[in-house]
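During the reporting period, our protein records have gained a structure token line. One record among many is quoted in full directly below:
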Amino acid sequence: MIAVALTATGSGQYRLTGDLDFASVVPLVLEGERVFAASPRVRIDLQGVGQANSAGLALLLEWVEQAKRRDRHLELVNLPESLARIATITNTASLLPLGTDAATKLP
């Protein structure tokens, strides 16, 4: 397992790296609260995410809810194929605020 990290890359810009599984996403839920408290617009680049399972999708959906509760704008870019497939299969893809870059397309 690769250590997971949410790293600031600029004002309201973050990069998520590592594998998203049931153990690694728990601290990221709290990290999301901190991120959304600090910025009205948040963009999270998921290009550095390795393996991800349904816990990773649950994390993204939790971040969507955290952003809504604080009336923040959230944009997710470079969604990994594994998360895109799970979101499509579970009919939750429409809930994800995906950016417009080519790497963020759903299957």
In short: The chain has one domain: 5-97. DSSP finds three helices and four strands in the chain.
